[in-house]
Each structure stands twice: as structure tokens, then as C-alpha cells.
Write a structure and sequence with these properties.
seven-stranded mixed beta sheet, 13 strands
Length: 350
């Protein structure tokens, strides 16, 4: 689908406390005046300071078809789905772009995603990456989302496996409606995976945008990163139990040990020498990949990269074992107990 086809089909843009709307409404008021679209802003908490920002923007751009929804609608255990439900119920166009508040966009982000929405494509998603920020925690996140994560994410996309993160997705609303609408995914914490699965099960293909989904959260720390990685690992284990075997051996240190043991028995090579050489090669190729995704110079030194890479690789086994040990997760303001298959139940304080 070309970008001009948006004028025919229309587009609903969902935002979750959407500061990206600052660009969105200004840019669309200039460029997308000939297109049919609406901006639906969703804020969960009534005391969120983003509400005042959104109201000022609505007043500043009265020519934009935009509305603000506050409080959400409780339809299941997933807080993101609950937040989006009021907007989804009144969305009037065939395409919806769900974009999280922490995503930084550029003037051609929507254009790029729309260009990927061809006749056989039902979902367009972006490769998650991280914007340049200050501090070692930011470096750690950027190294992960530029090395280990895209290696798995892009490989899954190329080989046809369902691997989609919902932080920035353009989807066909009628396909979601055939699957029961957003409410059908409110029983899952990983709603993005099951939405993608529902779209794929109906014969639609996925496309990846050429622009990354640039995460730009203002709150970040090493502990938050570790908690996020543990939560994702728990979700993968419950949704796809095969990851219990596959995931550890896909990491550098474990893979290097296994391959080193194999070549030692086959070729009689020294296992530790091979381990060190293999890790070094992995380290170098990860750096090359990171630079490629960054698209330019990194905001940190090679020493910072080396330290962050080593710490990230060293954390993997601990994160994996933590995910196996405790099936409960904390997300946003709630705590949930995961069940096999991906469903969950909320843990209420007595």
C-alpha cells in the first residue's frame, strides 16, 4: 500500500500517554491534510500530568480529528488493553497504529510503516532500539537492543516465526475484529504476541519497517532493565516452553562452551582457547551489528561497550533461572501469575 492509500482507507492512531503526539499533531496538520485519520490518546490515570499536555495540544490543533480518553475500561487483566479499549471501540478507520508513549518518532515514521502495508500484509512492526541517553544503564540497554535482541528478532522475522513487540505496530482493524477485537487479548500479558498470532493464523503476512521503534523512556536503571528482561523471559517460557532449551544455548557464553566441548572431542582443540576465540569473535560481530543498527557513531566509548556487553552476557543465565523460579510478574501497577499457554491472573492484595 502506498502512503496515499491512507487517504482511502483512513488511519486511527492510538497513543498511550502519547508525548509523540507533540510531533504527530503538528506534522500531520501540515503534511497529512488531504488524508483521513484520527488521533486517539489514551491515558490510564486521572492524575497523570500528560492529561494537561494533551488538552493543550487538542486546543492548539483544532483542525486535527483527535480525542482524549482517560481511565480506560476494565475488560481483562492486561492494563494496556484496558487503557486502549475506549479508543478502540470508537475507532472508525481500517488501519490502526498503536504507539507507546516511550517511542520517539521522526517525520517519516508513519510514511515508512504505511509503505510496508501491502495487500498481503496485515501487520507492520518496527525493530525495537534505544535512543541515545546518558548513563551506564542507558548504554546497557542500547547494547542489548543493538546486539542480542535484534539478532533474534530479525532472524525470527526472516524465517517466518512470530516475533513482534507491540510498542509500535500498524495493523488492520478488520482482522483484529475477526479475532474478537482487542478484548480477546485482554487475558494475556503478552498481547502483542497473540495479536500477531491471530493475524498470521488468518493468512496475513508481517512486514518490518525500515525505521526502528526508538525507545526513549525517561526512567531507566540497571535494576529496571533486569526486571524487564526477567519479565520477558517469563512470558516466553510460558508461551513457548521450547525456549527452556533453546534460549540458554543461544547466548554467547553457553554457546561457546558447548561448541568448544564439541570441537575438543572432534578435533582435539583446546576447549578454553576455542572458548575465548569464539567469544571474541561474537563480541566483534556484535559491535559491527550495533553500529549498523545505530546508523552512525555511538554515544559511548568502546570501553563502555565492552563493559556493558560483558555484563549483559553475564546476566543472561541469572535472568533465565530467575524466570524459571518464579512464575509471577510485576507490570505497571499490578502483579500477575502466569499460566502455561500465556494467560495470566491478577494477584490481588487481601
Amino acid at each position: 500500500m502506498a502512503v496515499l492509500d491512507l487517504a482511502l482507507e483512513g488511519l486511527a492512531i492510538f497513543g498511550l500517554i502519547l508525548f509523540v503526539v507533540l510531533w504527530l499533531m503538528h506534522f500531520m496538520s501540515i503534511v497529512y491534510t488531504a488524508f483521513r485519520y484520527e488521533v486517539l490518546l489514551c491515558v490510564q490515570d486521572h492524575d497523570d500530568p500528560a492529561i494537561d499536555v494533551c488538552k493543550k495540544l487538542l486546543g492548539k490543533y483544532p483542525n486535527i480529528d483527535a480525542r482524549l480518553f482517560i481511565g480506560g475500561k476494565k475488560v481483562g487483566i492486561n492494563p494496556k488493553i484496558n487503557n486502549l479499549m475506549p479508543a478502540y471501540e470508537v475507532a472508525k478507520y481500517d488501519l490502526i497504529w498503536i504507539c507507546d508513549s516511550g517511542i520517539r518518532v521522526t517525520p517519516d515514521t508513519l510514511t515508512d510503516m504505511a509503505n510496508q502495508m501491502t495487500e498481503k500484509v496485515g501487520l507492520v512492526h518496527g525493530l525495537p532500539y534505544v535512543a541515545d541517553r546518558q548513563g551506564f544503564a542507558a548504554t546497557l540497554e542500547q547494547v542489548y537492543f543493538g546486539t542480542s535482541h535484534p539478532r533474534t528478532y530479525i532472524s525470527a522475522h526472516v524465517t517466518g516465526f512470530k516475533c513482534v513487540t507491540g510498542m509500535s505496530c500498524l495493523m488492520r482493524k478488520d482482522v483484529l475484529d475477526q479475532a474478537g477485537g482487542l478484548i480477546a487479548f485482554a487475558q494475556y500479558i503478552a498481547e502483542d504476541y497473540f495479536m500477531a498470532k491471530a493475524i498470521a493464523d488468518r493468512g496475513w503476512k508481517f512486514a518490518m519497517a525500515t525505521r526502528v521503534a526508538m525507545q526513549n523512556s525517561g526512567s531507566y536503571s540497571i535494576s529496571q532493565f533486569q526486571s524487564r528482561m526477567t519479565r520477558w523471559a517469563k512470558l516466553r517460557i510460558n508461551m513457548l516452553p521450547a525456549t527452556i532449551i533453546c534460549e540458554p544455548i543461544a547466548e554467547c557464553f553457553v554457546a561457546s562452551l558447548i561448541i568448544g566441548w564439541a570441537v575438543h572431542h572432534v578435533f582435539k582443540w583446546d576447549i578454553m582457547v576455542f572458548f575465548m576465540c569464539h567469544c571474541l569473535a561474537w563480541f566483534i560481530f556484535d559491535y559491527i551489528q550495533l553500529r549498523g543498527i545505530q546508523g552512525g557513531a555511538l554515544c559511548f566509548s568502546k570501553l563502555d561497550y565492552a563493559v556493558a556487553w560483558f555484563i549483559r552476557e553475564s546476566m543472561t543465565i541469572y535472568i533465565f533461572l530467575s524466570a524459571l523460579w518464579d512464575p509471577t510478574i510485576s507490570w505497571r501497577t499490578g502483579r500477575y501469575r502466569l499460566r502455561c499457554g500465556g494467560t495470566a491472573e491478577e494477584i490481588l492484595d487481601v
